[in-house]
Design a protein that fits this description.
Blueprint (H helix, E strand, L loop, with lengths): L3 H27 L9 H8 L3 H7 L3 H21 L11 H16 L1 H11 L3 H27 L9 H22 L5 H17 L3
């Protein structure tokens, strides 16, 4: 059995290689290459390691993109949470501010988000993985809204899980399409429109 120090060193090296590989892909995406154009060979060449070493780290490119998206989504979801739980007494204004923060995070991780859009169109595994993240956030949003419904701030007949699903899908698609095709100068208008829709859907008939 190898000594603990050796195993720790192997884990550290694997973590270092993973981080370096993700940085290479991020850089290539930022340079305008589509994810489909990026090969393990090009990643390995830039890292100065055999391609077989990458296959020990990632099963395939889909797994690599999953790792990248998970790191980015942690920050995006943290910002998006505020789009559902905010001080509704000011009307849609607070929702608009939360929307701007969410769009800013999507733009910060734009290249990864667009790569996910690209690959989910032809890779069912990544599509299912992405949908899993969506449903996880839907559950979080519904749980966050529940105390507000219990206190009478949301109408009692609102089906929170279904409402959360509809709103999360609306926010996700709007953000994705806007960062791909929209002008950053329009972020505030988009955030205001979506914020108003979210506010009305949650609190409009309370």
């Amino acid at each position: 059995m190898p000594p603990v120090r050796t195993r720790a060193a192997v884990r550290a090296r694997r973590a270092e290689l993973e981080t370096a590989a993700l940085e290479v892909v991020s850089r290539q995406l930022a340079e305008g290459r589509s994810f489909n154009e990026i090969s393990f060979q090009s990643i390995a060449k830039e890292l100065g390691v055999p391609r077989s070493t990458l296959y020990m780290q990632f099963r395939d490119k889909t797994e690599l993109l999953m790792r990248m998206s998970e790191l980015a989504l942690d920050e995006v979801y943290a910002a998006s949470a505020a789009w559902f739980v905010f001080d509704h007494r000011t009307g849609p204004e607070a929702a608009t501010r939360a929307g701007l923060e969410t769009l800013a995070k999507f733009r910060e991780h734009r290249d990864i988000a667009l790569a996910v859009i690209e690959v989910t169109t032809y890779d069912p595994e990544l599509a299912d993985h992405w949908y899993g993240h969506i449903t996880t956030f839907v559950d979080r949003a519904a749980r966050a809204l529940q105390p507000l419904q219990d206190s009478g701030e949301i109408a009692p007949d609102v089906d929170l899980p279904t409402l959360a699903f509809a709103l999360v899908c609306m926010v996700e698609r709007t953000a994705m399409v806007h960062i791909r095709h929209g002008d950053p100068a329009d972020d505030e208008r988009v955030a205001a429109a979506v914020g108003r829709a979210v506010w009305l859907a949650i609190y409009g008939d309370a």
